[in-house]
Amino acid sequence: MQVVVLKESSADEFRVALVPESAKKLVTAENKVFVETGAGDLAGATDSDYKQAGAEISDSPEELLPNTDVLLAINRPPDASLSKLKKGAIVVALLRPLDEPEKLRPFIENNLTAFSLEMIPRATRAQAMDVLSSMATIAGYKAVLLATEKLPRMLPMMTTAAGTIPPAKVLIVGAGVAGLQAIATARRLGAVVEGFDIRAAAGEAVRSLGAKFLELENVNAEGEGGYAKEVGEDVMENARELLTKAAANADCIITTAQIPGRRAPVLITREAVEAMKSGSVIVDLAGANGGNCELAKPNEIVNHNGVFIYAPTNLAATIPVHASQLFSRNVTAFCNLLAKDGELSLDFSDDILSGSYIVHQGEIRNERVKEIFKERV
Ligand code: NAD
Q1: Do 65 and 71 meet the contact criterion of CB atoms below 8 Å apart?
Q2: pLDDT in tens, 258-277
Q3: Could you tell me the pLDDT band of residue 221, with boundaries at 50, 70 and 90?
Protein backbone atom coordinates (compact mmCIF):
# COMPACT_ATOMS: atom_id res chain seq x y z
CA MET A 1 0.00 0.00 0.00
CA GLN A 2 1.44 3.35 -1.04
CA VAL A 3 0.75 5.90 1.70
CA VAL A 4 1.32 9.57 0.95
CA VAL A 5 1.49 12.55 3.29
CA LEU A 6 1.61 16.09 1.92
CA LYS A 7 2.36 19.37 3.62
CA GLU A 8 -0.96 20.76 4.90
CA SER A 9 -2.12 23.55 2.63
CA SER A 10 -3.67 26.02 5.06
CA ALA A 11 -1.44 28.80 6.39
CA ASP A 12 -2.54 28.32 10.01
CA GLU A 13 -2.07 24.55 9.99
CA PHE A 14 1.14 23.53 11.71
CA ARG A 15 0.33 19.85 12.21
CA VAL A 16 1.27 16.91 10.02
CA ALA A 17 -0.88 13.79 9.61
CA LEU A 18 1.92 11.29 10.14
CA VAL A 19 5.02 11.64 12.34
CA PRO A 20 8.18 9.57 11.79
CA GLU A 21 7.40 7.20 14.69
CA SER A 22 4.17 6.14 12.91
CA ALA A 23 5.76 6.17 9.44
CA LYS A 24 8.15 3.54 10.78
CA LYS A 25 5.23 1.39 11.93
CA LEU A 26 3.57 1.58 8.52
CA VAL A 27 6.86 0.73 6.77
CA THR A 28 7.37 -2.23 9.11
CA ALA A 29 3.88 -3.41 8.16
CA GLU A 30 5.07 -3.66 4.52
CA ASN A 31 3.65 -0.33 3.30
CA LYS A 32 5.53 2.30 1.34
CA VAL A 33 5.39 5.77 2.85
CA PHE A 34 6.08 8.96 0.89
CA VAL A 35 6.25 12.35 2.59
CA GLU A 36 6.39 15.74 0.88
CA THR A 37 9.55 17.72 1.63
CA GLY A 38 9.10 19.82 4.76
CA ALA A 39 5.67 18.34 5.62
CA GLY A 40 6.62 17.86 9.27
CA ASP A 41 8.86 20.90 9.72
CA LEU A 42 6.38 22.84 11.89
CA ALA A 43 5.54 19.76 13.94
CA GLY A 44 9.11 18.98 14.94
CA ALA A 45 9.64 16.22 12.34
CA THR A 46 12.41 16.82 9.81
CA ASP A 47 12.85 15.19 6.40
CA SER A 48 15.82 13.33 7.79
CA ASP A 49 13.68 11.94 10.69
CA TYR A 50 11.25 10.55 8.10
CA LYS A 51 14.11 9.05 6.04
CA GLN A 52 15.47 7.35 9.14
CA ALA A 53 12.01 5.93 9.75
CA GLY A 54 12.08 4.34 6.30
CA ALA A 55 9.88 6.84 4.44
CA GLU A 56 10.82 8.44 1.14
CA ILE A 57 10.87 12.21 0.79
CA SER A 58 9.61 13.87 -2.37
CA ASP A 59 9.42 17.49 -3.43
CA SER A 60 6.93 16.69 -6.16
CA PRO A 61 3.36 16.06 -5.01
CA GLU A 62 2.40 16.01 -8.72
CA GLU A 63 4.42 12.83 -9.13
CA LEU A 64 3.26 11.25 -5.87
CA LEU A 65 -0.48 11.80 -6.22
CA PRO A 66 -1.24 9.66 -9.32
CA ASN A 67 0.34 6.62 -7.62
CA THR A 68 -1.17 7.14 -4.18
CA ASP A 69 -3.26 4.37 -2.63
CA VAL A 70 -3.93 6.23 0.61
CA LEU A 71 -3.56 9.98 1.10
CA LEU A 72 -3.38 10.88 4.80
CA ALA A 73 -4.14 14.45 5.80
CA ILE A 74 -5.30 16.46 8.77
CA ASN A 75 -7.72 18.68 6.85
CA ARG A 76 -9.55 18.13 3.60
CA PRO A 77 -6.86 18.32 0.87
CA PRO A 78 -7.25 21.06 -1.76
CA ASP A 79 -9.36 20.22 -4.82
CA ALA A 80 -6.29 20.53 -7.06
CA SER A 81 -4.63 17.64 -5.18
CA LEU A 82 -7.77 15.51 -5.18
CA SER A 83 -8.12 15.83 -8.94
CA LYS A 84 -4.61 14.35 -9.42
CA LEU A 85 -5.38 11.17 -7.47
CA LYS A 86 -6.16 7.99 -9.38
CA LYS A 87 -9.70 6.63 -9.46
CA GLY A 88 -10.44 4.66 -6.29
CA ALA A 89 -7.63 6.26 -4.26
CA ILE A 90 -8.40 6.55 -0.56
CA VAL A 91 -8.34 9.83 1.36
CA VAL A 92 -8.31 9.74 5.16
CA ALA A 93 -8.74 13.11 6.90
CA LEU A 94 -11.05 15.32 8.93
CA LEU A 95 -13.47 16.09 6.09
CA ARG A 96 -16.26 17.91 7.98
CA PRO A 97 -18.92 16.02 5.99
CA LEU A 98 -21.81 17.06 8.26
CA ASP A 99 -20.76 20.72 8.38
CA GLU A 100 -19.57 21.24 4.79
CA PRO A 101 -21.24 18.53 2.69
CA GLU A 102 -20.83 20.59 -0.49
CA LYS A 103 -17.06 20.16 -0.21
CA LEU A 104 -17.49 16.44 -0.89
CA ARG A 105 -18.11 17.13 -4.57
CA PRO A 106 -14.49 16.62 -5.73
CA PHE A 107 -14.43 13.22 -3.99
CA ILE A 108 -17.55 12.20 -5.89
CA GLU A 109 -16.44 13.67 -9.22
CA ASN A 110 -12.96 12.11 -9.03
CA ASN A 111 -14.29 8.71 -7.97
CA LEU A 112 -12.33 8.66 -4.73
CA THR A 113 -12.95 6.72 -1.55
CA ALA A 114 -13.19 9.14 1.36
CA PHE A 115 -12.94 8.17 5.01
CA SER A 116 -13.83 10.90 7.44
CA LEU A 117 -12.14 10.58 10.79
CA GLU A 118 -14.94 12.49 12.54
CA MET A 119 -17.33 9.70 11.62
CA ILE A 120 -15.46 6.83 13.27
CA PRO A 121 -17.97 5.31 15.67
CA ARG A 122 -17.08 5.95 19.28
CA ALA A 123 -16.91 2.29 20.17
CA THR A 124 -14.33 0.88 22.59
CA ARG A 125 -12.48 -0.85 19.71
CA ALA A 126 -12.15 2.50 17.92
CA GLN A 127 -10.69 4.41 20.85
CA ALA A 128 -7.16 4.19 19.43
CA MET A 129 -8.43 5.97 16.30
CA ASP A 130 -10.42 8.69 18.04
CA VAL A 131 -8.94 11.81 16.47
CA LEU A 132 -11.80 13.96 17.77
CA SER A 133 -10.94 13.13 21.36
CA SER A 134 -7.22 13.65 20.77
CA MET A 135 -7.73 17.10 19.26
CA ALA A 136 -10.42 18.08 21.78
CA THR A 137 -8.05 17.19 24.62
CA ILE A 138 -5.45 19.58 23.24
CA ALA A 139 -7.95 22.34 22.47
CA GLY A 140 -9.47 22.15 25.97
CA TYR A 141 -6.03 22.45 27.57
CA LYS A 142 -4.91 25.28 25.30
CA ALA A 143 -8.16 27.22 25.77
CA VAL A 144 -7.37 27.58 29.47
CA LEU A 145 -3.82 28.70 28.74
CA LEU A 146 -5.08 31.25 26.23
CA ALA A 147 -7.62 32.59 28.72
CA THR A 148 -5.03 32.65 31.50
CA GLU A 149 -2.66 34.66 29.36
CA LYS A 150 -5.34 37.21 28.46
CA LEU A 151 -6.85 37.55 31.95
CA PRO A 152 -5.69 40.52 34.01
CA ARG A 153 -5.62 38.30 37.11
CA MET A 154 -3.98 35.07 38.29
CA LEU A 155 -5.84 31.78 38.59
CA PRO A 156 -4.62 30.38 41.93
CA MET A 157 -5.24 31.75 45.35
CA MET A 158 -2.04 33.40 46.63
CA THR A 159 -1.27 34.10 50.24
CA THR A 160 1.47 36.68 50.31
CA ALA A 161 2.97 39.16 52.74
CA ALA A 162 0.92 41.79 50.93
CA GLY A 163 -2.27 39.91 51.65
CA THR A 164 -4.35 37.18 50.08
CA ILE A 165 -5.42 37.07 46.45
CA PRO A 166 -8.57 35.01 45.87
CA PRO A 167 -8.62 32.35 43.14
CA ALA A 168 -10.15 33.15 39.75
CA LYS A 169 -13.57 31.71 38.93
CA VAL A 170 -13.78 29.76 35.71
CA LEU A 171 -16.99 28.52 34.10
CA ILE A 172 -16.76 25.68 31.58
CA VAL A 173 -19.77 25.12 29.33
CA GLY A 174 -20.01 21.67 27.75
CA ALA A 175 -18.31 18.85 29.64
CA GLY A 176 -17.31 16.49 26.84
CA VAL A 177 -13.69 15.73 26.05
CA ALA A 178 -12.56 19.36 25.56
CA GLY A 179 -14.60 20.67 28.48
CA LEU A 180 -13.32 18.07 30.92
CA GLN A 181 -9.74 18.75 29.87
CA ALA A 182 -10.38 22.48 30.34
CA ILE A 183 -11.78 21.81 33.82
CA ALA A 184 -8.76 19.67 34.73
CA THR A 185 -6.34 22.32 33.43
CA ALA A 186 -8.08 25.21 35.20
CA ARG A 187 -8.16 23.19 38.43
CA ARG A 188 -4.44 22.38 38.13
CA LEU A 189 -3.82 26.11 37.84
CA GLY A 190 -5.77 26.65 41.03
CA ALA A 191 -9.01 28.19 39.74
CA VAL A 192 -12.40 27.61 41.30
CA VAL A 193 -14.32 25.89 38.52
CA GLU A 194 -17.95 25.35 37.62
CA GLY A 195 -19.02 23.10 34.77
CA PHE A 196 -22.28 22.82 32.89
CA ASP A 197 -23.57 20.23 30.44
CA ILE A 198 -26.98 19.29 29.13
CA ARG A 199 -26.15 15.60 29.67
CA ALA A 200 -26.76 14.73 33.32
CA ALA A 201 -24.15 11.95 33.04
CA ALA A 202 -21.44 14.59 32.68
CA GLY A 203 -22.05 15.65 36.29
CA GLU A 204 -20.09 12.81 37.82
CA ALA A 205 -17.04 13.51 35.62
CA VAL A 206 -17.19 17.24 36.39
CA ARG A 207 -17.39 16.65 40.13
CA SER A 208 -14.61 14.05 40.05
CA LEU A 209 -12.29 16.78 38.74
CA GLY A 210 -13.04 18.98 41.73
CA ALA A 211 -15.47 21.32 39.98
CA LYS A 212 -19.06 22.15 40.82
CA PHE A 213 -21.66 20.83 38.35
CA LEU A 214 -24.38 23.25 37.35
CA GLU A 215 -27.46 21.22 36.60
CA LEU A 216 -30.85 21.75 35.04
CA GLU A 217 -33.38 19.71 36.97
CA ASN A 218 -35.10 16.87 35.10
CA VAL A 219 -33.10 17.35 31.91
CA ASN A 220 -30.93 14.69 30.38
CA ALA A 221 -30.20 15.20 26.71
CA GLU A 222 -28.02 12.12 26.26
CA GLY A 223 -28.37 10.94 22.67
CA GLU A 224 -26.75 8.24 20.56
CA GLY A 225 -23.14 7.29 21.27
CA GLY A 226 -22.87 9.52 24.34
CA TYR A 227 -23.38 12.69 22.30
CA ALA A 228 -25.91 15.32 23.31
CA LYS A 229 -29.14 15.62 21.34
CA GLU A 230 -30.92 18.83 20.53
CA VAL A 231 -33.28 20.06 23.27
CA GLY A 232 -36.39 22.23 23.06
CA GLU A 233 -36.33 26.03 23.23
CA ASP A 234 -37.79 25.96 26.78
CA VAL A 235 -34.83 23.91 28.05
CA MET A 236 -32.40 26.16 26.18
CA GLU A 237 -33.99 29.22 27.80
CA ASN A 238 -33.50 27.66 31.25
CA ALA A 239 -29.90 26.79 30.38
CA ARG A 240 -29.20 30.37 29.25
CA GLU A 241 -30.76 31.77 32.41
CA LEU A 242 -28.65 29.48 34.61
CA LEU A 243 -25.51 30.41 32.69
CA THR A 244 -26.25 34.14 32.75
CA LYS A 245 -26.33 33.97 36.56
CA ALA A 246 -23.10 31.95 36.64
CA ALA A 247 -21.43 34.32 34.13
CA ALA A 248 -21.92 37.27 36.46
CA ASN A 249 -19.54 35.61 38.95
CA ALA A 250 -17.05 34.22 36.44
CA ASP A 251 -13.72 35.77 35.49
CA CYS A 252 -13.41 33.45 32.57
CA ILE A 253 -15.76 31.29 30.52
CA ILE A 254 -14.69 28.50 28.20
CA THR A 255 -17.40 27.07 25.99
CA THR A 256 -17.17 23.72 24.22
CA ALA A 257 -20.81 22.69 23.63
CA GLN A 258 -21.50 20.95 20.32
CA ILE A 259 -24.09 18.74 18.70
CA PRO A 260 -22.65 16.81 15.77
CA GLY A 261 -24.03 18.04 12.43
CA ARG A 262 -25.93 20.96 13.96
CA ARG A 263 -25.16 24.59 14.66
CA ALA A 264 -23.55 24.85 18.08
CA PRO A 265 -26.10 25.85 20.75
CA VAL A 266 -26.04 29.51 21.79
CA LEU A 267 -25.67 29.43 25.56
CA ILE A 268 -23.82 32.63 26.49
CA THR A 269 -26.02 35.50 25.42
CA ARG A 270 -25.24 39.19 25.04
CA GLU A 271 -26.95 39.66 28.41
CA ALA A 272 -24.59 37.12 30.01
CA VAL A 273 -21.54 38.87 28.51
CA GLU A 274 -22.85 42.20 29.79
CA ALA A 275 -23.21 40.69 33.27
CA MET A 276 -19.46 39.92 33.37
CA LYS A 277 -16.79 42.18 34.85
CA SER A 278 -14.66 44.25 32.52
CA GLY A 279 -11.41 42.36 31.84
CA SER A 280 -13.13 38.98 31.85
CA VAL A 281 -12.32 36.56 29.07
CA ILE A 282 -14.45 34.13 27.05
CA VAL A 283 -12.86 31.45 24.88
CA ASP A 284 -15.46 29.90 22.58
CA LEU A 285 -14.27 26.60 21.13
CA ALA A 286 -17.44 26.13 19.08
CA GLY A 287 -16.62 29.03 16.73
CA ALA A 288 -16.26 26.81 13.66
CA ASN A 289 -19.88 25.71 14.09
CA GLY A 290 -21.43 29.08 14.85
CA GLY A 291 -20.22 29.57 18.42
CA ASN A 292 -21.74 29.11 21.89
CA CYS A 293 -21.44 32.80 22.66
CA GLU A 294 -23.86 35.09 20.87
CA LEU A 295 -21.14 37.72 20.34
CA ALA A 296 -18.26 35.44 19.30
CA LYS A 297 -16.77 35.77 15.82
CA PRO A 298 -14.61 32.92 14.50
CA ASN A 299 -10.88 33.74 14.66
CA GLU A 300 -11.53 37.31 15.76
CA ILE A 301 -11.13 39.04 19.10
CA VAL A 302 -14.30 40.81 20.16
CA ASN A 303 -14.10 43.42 22.90
CA HIS A 304 -17.59 43.91 24.31
CA ASN A 305 -17.56 46.50 27.12
CA GLY A 306 -14.13 45.26 28.20
CA VAL A 307 -15.01 41.56 28.03
CA PHE A 308 -12.71 39.87 25.51
CA ILE A 309 -14.20 37.07 23.45
CA TYR A 310 -11.93 34.70 21.52
CA ALA A 311 -13.18 32.03 19.13
CA PRO A 312 -10.14 30.26 17.71
CA THR A 313 -11.28 27.52 15.33
CA ASN A 314 -8.09 25.49 15.18
CA LEU A 315 -6.55 25.59 18.62
CA ALA A 316 -5.15 22.05 18.44
CA ALA A 317 -2.87 23.21 15.61
CA THR A 318 -1.15 25.63 17.99
CA ILE A 319 0.40 22.67 19.82
CA PRO A 320 1.62 20.98 16.64
CA VAL A 321 4.13 18.51 18.07
CA HIS A 322 1.77 16.72 20.42
CA ALA A 323 -1.29 17.25 18.23
CA SER A 324 0.55 15.62 15.31
CA GLN A 325 1.79 12.78 17.49
CA LEU A 326 -1.69 11.93 18.71
CA PHE A 327 -3.31 12.40 15.29
CA SER A 328 -0.62 10.27 13.71
CA ARG A 329 -1.09 7.41 16.19
CA ASN A 330 -4.85 7.53 15.64
CA VAL A 331 -4.58 7.54 11.87
CA THR A 332 -2.00 4.75 11.87
CA ALA A 333 -4.33 2.56 13.89
CA PHE A 334 -6.99 3.34 11.27
CA CYS A 335 -4.59 2.49 8.40
CA ASN A 336 -4.11 -0.96 9.89
CA LEU A 337 -7.75 -1.61 9.04
CA LEU A 338 -7.20 -0.69 5.38
CA ALA A 339 -4.54 -3.26 4.54
CA LYS A 340 -3.53 -6.85 5.04
CA ASP A 341 0.19 -7.70 4.69
CA GLY A 342 0.82 -4.34 3.02
CA GLU A 343 -1.91 -4.88 0.39
CA LEU A 344 -4.99 -2.68 0.27
CA SER A 345 -8.01 -4.65 1.46
CA LEU A 346 -11.26 -2.92 2.46
CA ASP A 347 -13.64 -4.95 4.57
CA PHE A 348 -16.83 -2.91 4.75
CA SER A 349 -18.37 -5.39 7.18
CA ASP A 350 -16.04 -3.80 9.75
CA ASP A 351 -18.20 -1.26 11.58
CA ILE A 352 -15.33 1.23 11.94
CA LEU A 353 -14.77 1.29 8.17
CA SER A 354 -18.45 1.24 7.28
CA GLY A 355 -19.17 4.00 9.81
CA SER A 356 -16.46 6.34 8.54
CA TYR A 357 -16.55 5.92 4.80
CA ILE A 358 -18.39 8.78 3.25
CA VAL A 359 -17.77 8.52 -0.47
CA HIS A 360 -17.08 5.37 -2.48
CA GLN A 361 -17.29 4.74 -6.22
CA GLY A 362 -18.64 8.20 -6.95
CA GLU A 363 -21.44 8.09 -4.40
CA ILE A 364 -22.07 9.29 -0.87
CA ARG A 365 -22.43 6.14 1.24
CA ASN A 366 -23.25 7.51 4.66
CA GLU A 367 -27.01 7.94 5.09
CA ARG A 368 -26.76 10.94 7.40
CA VAL A 369 -24.30 12.73 5.13
CA LYS A 370 -26.42 11.84 2.10
CA GLU A 371 -29.45 13.47 3.72
CA ILE A 372 -27.56 16.65 4.65
CA PHE A 373 -25.98 16.78 1.18
CA LYS A 374 -29.43 16.58 -0.45
CA GLU A 375 -30.81 19.25 1.89
CA ARG A 376 -28.00 21.75 1.34
CA VAL A 377 -26.44 21.07 -2.05
P1 NAD B 1 -19.07 17.16 21.55
O2 NAD B 1 -17.80 17.83 21.10
O3 NAD B 1 -20.05 16.75 20.52
O4 NAD B 1 -19.81 18.15 22.58
C5 NAD B 1 -19.17 18.68 23.70
C6 NAD B 1 -20.12 18.71 24.87
O7 NAD B 1 -21.15 19.67 24.63
C8 NAD B 1 -20.83 17.39 25.14
O9 NAD B 1 -20.51 16.96 26.45
C10 NAD B 1 -22.30 17.74 25.01
O11 NAD B 1 -23.12 17.02 25.92
C12 NAD B 1 -22.29 19.21 25.30
N13 NAD B 1 -23.50 19.93 24.86
C14 NAD B 1 -24.20 19.82 23.71
N15 NAD B 1 -25.26 20.65 23.71
C16 NAD B 1 -25.23 21.32 24.89
C17 NAD B 1 -26.06 22.30 25.49
N18 NAD B 1 -27.13 22.78 24.88
N19 NAD B 1 -25.74 22.75 26.71
C20 NAD B 1 -24.64 22.27 27.35
N21 NAD B 1 -23.81 21.34 26.86
C22 NAD B 1 -24.11 20.86 25.63
O23 NAD B 1 -18.78 15.91 22.46
P24 NAD B 1 -17.44 15.13 22.78
O25 NAD B 1 -16.58 15.93 23.65
O26 NAD B 1 -16.87 14.67 21.51
O27 NAD B 1 -17.98 13.89 23.63
C28 NAD B 1 -19.34 13.53 23.68
C29 NAD B 1 -19.52 12.29 24.50
O30 NAD B 1 -18.86 11.18 23.91
C31 NAD B 1 -19.01 12.36 25.91
O32 NAD B 1 -19.94 11.68 26.71
C33 NAD B 1 -17.74 11.59 25.87
O34 NAD B 1 -17.40 11.07 27.14
C35 NAD B 1 -18.11 10.51 24.89
N36 NAD B 1 -16.92 9.91 24.28
C37 NAD B 1 -16.85 8.55 24.18
C38 NAD B 1 -15.74 7.96 23.61
C39 NAD B 1 -15.60 6.47 23.46
O40 NAD B 1 -14.71 6.02 22.83
N41 NAD B 1 -16.48 5.69 23.98
C42 NAD B 1 -14.72 8.74 23.15
C43 NAD B 1 -14.84 10.12 23.27
C44 NAD B 1 -15.95 10.69 23.83
Answers
A1: yes
A2: 988 889 999 999 999 999 99
A3: confident
pLDDT in tens, 57-102: 999 999 999 999 999 999 999 999 999 999 999 999 999 999 899 9
Is the C-beta atom of 243 inside 6 A of ligand 1? no
CA of 185 to the centre of ligand 1 (A): 18
Residue owning the nearest CA to atom 3 of ligand 1: 258
Burial class of 5 by CB neighbour count within 10 A (0 to 12, 13 to 18, 19+): buried
Please give the positions annotated as active site: 122, 127, 130, 133, 227
Q: Is the CB of 105 under 6 A from ligand 1?
A: no
Angle at 22 between CA 18 and CA 23, to 5 degrees: 75
Q: Report whether 175 contacts 169 (CB < 8 A).
A: no
Scanning the chain, the segments in alpha helix (DSSP H) are: 20-28, 47-52, 61-64, 79-82, 105-109, 131-150, 177-188, 202-208, 233-249, 270-274, 320-335, 351-356, 367-376
The DSSP output letter for 85 is: S
| Cα 111 from chain centre | 27
Confidence check: pLDDT of 343 > 90: no
Atom of ligand 1 lying closest to residue 196 CA: 20
**Mean of pLDDT values over 272-292:** 97
227 lines ligand 1 (CB under 6 A): yes
Whether 225 shows a pLDDT value over 80: the answer reads: no
For residues 179 and 172, the answer to whether their CB atoms sit within 8 Å is: yes
Give the Cα separation of 130 and 251 in Å (integer).
Answer: 32
Write phi, then psi, for 13 (nearest 5 degrees).
Answer: -110, 110
Residue whose Cα lies nearest atom 19 of ligand 1: it is 198
Residue 282 CA, ligand 1 centroid: distance in Å? 20
> How much distance in Å is there from the Cα of 177 to the middle of ligand 1?
6
* For the CA of 258, the nearest atom of ligand 1: 4
* Ligand 1 touching residue 259 (CB < 6 A): yes
Torsion of CA 256, 266, 274, 235, to 10 degrees: -110
